[in-house]
Amino acid sequence: MAETSAKGESLLFLTDEQLRKGIEAMFFAYRGFTADPDRILETMDYGRAHHRAIHFINRSPGLTVSGLLALLGVTKQSLNRVLRTLFEDGLVEARVGKTDKRERRLHLTEKGAALERALSDAQRARMRAAYRAAGPQAVQGFRTVLEAMMDPEMRRQYLGLREEAQ
Amino acid sequence: MAETSAKGESLLFLTDEQLRKGIEAMFFAYRGFTADPDRILETMDYGRAHHRAIHFINRSPGLTVSGLLALLGVTKQSLNRVLRTLFEDGLVEARVGKTDKRERRLHLTEKGAALERALSDAQRARMRAAYRAAGPQAVQGFRTVLEAMMDPEMRRQYLGLREEAQ
DNA sequence: GAATTTACGTCAGCCTTGTTGACATTCCAA
DNA sequence: TTGGAATGTCAACAAGGCTGACGTAAATTC
User: Fold this and answer.
1) What is the arithmetic mean of pLDDT over B96-114?
2) Is position B4 within any domain?
3) Is the pLDDT of residue A3 over 50?
4) Is A131 an interface residue toward B (CB < 8 Å)?
5) Distance between CA A51 and CA B139 in Å, rounded?
6) B104 nearest nt, CA–C1'
7) Distance of residue B116 Cα from the nearest chain A Cα, in angstroms
8) Which of A145, A151, A153, A156 should one mutate to test binding to chain B, selecting the residue with the greatest count of B CBs within 10 A?
9) Which of B19, B66, B97, B155 is the most buried (most CB within 10 A)?
10) Which bases on strand D have an atom closer than 7 Å to a protein beta carbon?
11) CA–CA distance, B96 with A67 (Å, rounded to integer)
C-alpha cells in the first residue's frame, strides 16, 4: 500500500527522534480528540464508555451485544454496567432478534440519538477544523498512518463497517 | 498554515462521513498504539500512568514535578501515587533543585532507563512499521493533522519540548 | 428428544487511575 | 516578614476496567 510516493527517497522520517515525536503527537492529540465530548458527558452522569457505546450503536443500528463487545474490546460485565444505565435512562433500547431470539438488537431512542448528535457534533467540529487546517493531502496521510497502526483485527472492524448492521 | 496543497479543490474530505471515519480511525489506532507497552506493563505491577511518567522523565531529565503535572494533565495526588511506586522500586530518583530547593528534579535510574527502553522500543516498532508502510508523505500529513487536533496549550507543550529540561 | 453450545444477564469482589478537600512543610520573592 | 509557590500526604470517593461463578433461554447438534 501507498506505492504512490517516493518511499525510498529518504529514511530520515524513520529516526527514533521522529518516531518519538509521532508518539507524543498521538498522546497529545488524543487528549484533544476526547476533550469536547468529555466536557458534555461530565455534565450528565456519563463517561467516555457511554460515548463509545452510543457511537457504535448509532453507527450500526441493530448491533448485537456481542457485536458491540467485539468493537469495544471490553468484558461483558463492564459493558453491561454501561448499557444498563443507558436502558434505564431511555437512551438505548433492545429489541429481541427476529431470527435468533437470544440476541438483543440495540437501537438508540430519539433521546439517545439527540445525545449522540450533541457528542459527535462537538467531536466532528474539532476534527473538521483540524482537517481544514491541514488540507486533503494531509488528511489522506493521517488516515493511512492510523490504519497502519491498528491491530489487524481492529483494522478489519474499521474497514468492514458498512456490512455489519442489521 | 498548509498553504501548500490544493485546499480549495474539493471539500469532499470534510463530509460528516469522512469525519466519522477519522474519528473511528483515531479510536482504533489509539488502541493499537498502546497495546504493546500495555502488554509489557501488565507483567510488572505497572499501568499506563507509569509509562507516561517514565516517558516524559526520560525525554526531559531534570523535569520538575509540576512540569510533569502540566504535561500529563492530572492532579498531583494522582501523579504522586504513581511517582511513589517508581521511587520505591528504584526506577526514578528525585534530586533537590540547585537554585530552588523546593523543586524535585526527576531523573530515571539505570533500571528506569532500561524499562523506558523496553517500552519505547515496543511502541516505536509499531510506529516504525506504520510509518514505513505509509511513506514519508503520509507521515507528514499524519503529524500535521494531529497537531491541528491538539488543544492550543497542548500544542505548545508538544512543540516546545526541547527547552524545558534542566 | 436430549445434550451441548451460544447469547446474554448478574452478583461479588478487586485494581488502577482519576477526582476533591484539607493540611503541613519548605523556601523564594516582594 | 509575609504571601504564595512547590511539594507531599491523608482520606474518601467514583468510573471503568478486570476475573470468577452462576443462571436462563434459545439455538444447534448429536
Assistant:
1) 94
2) no
3) no
4) yes
5) 29
6) D7
7) 12
8) A145
9) B19
10) 5-12, 15-21, 25-28
11) 53
Domain count, chain B: 1
Cβ of B127 within 8 Å of Cβ of A22? The answer is yes
The residue among B146 and A159 whose pLDDT is bigger is B146
* Inside any domain, residue B32: yes
- Give the angle B14-A92-A30 at the CA atoms, nearest 5°: 40
- For residue A50, the one-letter residue type is H
Q: Which residues of A touch B49 (CB under 8 A)?
A: none
The type of residue at B121 is: D
Phi, psi of A93 (to 5 degrees): -130, 150
pLDDT at B9: 56
| Domain CATH code at residue B126 | 1.10.10.10
Residue of B nearest to A17 (CA): B124
Containing structural domain, residue A105: 26-164
| Average pLDDT rounded to a whole number, residues B114-122 | 96
pLDDT of A162 reads 42
Place of cell 469532499: B12
* Domain membership flag for residue A111: yes
Evaluate whether residue B8 is within a structural domain.
no
